[in-house]
TrEMBL record:
This is Uncharacterized protein. It comes from the Bacteria.
Length: 115
């Protein structure tokens, strides 16, 4: 599928979910500097983020659909990073960009968690 059409389909759904779930936030747009820290996550129960399941190698279990395997594996990948205490640093948007560039990208493009 086309990224543009997927975005046009997905954005209204994410917006509706965000409105229905006040304890949620959209990464990186609702996090200062894109960082998730204990402070920025205070009161937050759900974080919405764009993912790229192909970020990790596909290893489907017997009989498992490839899409299901990708989702399972990327969830385990992020869980492992979080368990090691490095997820927040890995997803920070301010690691290599100046503030002006971050603002420009956030206004014009998407961010993929961990990419």
């Amino acid at each position: 599928g086309s990224v543009g059409s997927q975005s046009l389909t997905g954005i209204p759904h994410v917006h509706a979910l965000r409105q229905a779930l006040p304890e949620s936030r959209i990464w990186p747009f609702e996090f200062e500097d894109g960082e998730m820290t204990e402070e920025t996550l205070e009161g937050v129960k759900i974080v919405f983020a764009e993912i790229y399941p192909s970020l990790v190698p596909l290893k489907a279990e017997k009989g498992e659909a490839p899409d299901a395997a990708q989702v399972r594996q990327i969830a385990h990948h992020y869980s492992d990073l979080d368990g090691k205490g490095v997820l927040g640093r890995r997803i920070s948007t301010n690691n290599s960009l100046d503030e002006g560039k971050i603002s420009q990208i956030q206004a014009e493009e998407g961010w993929i968690l961990g990419a």
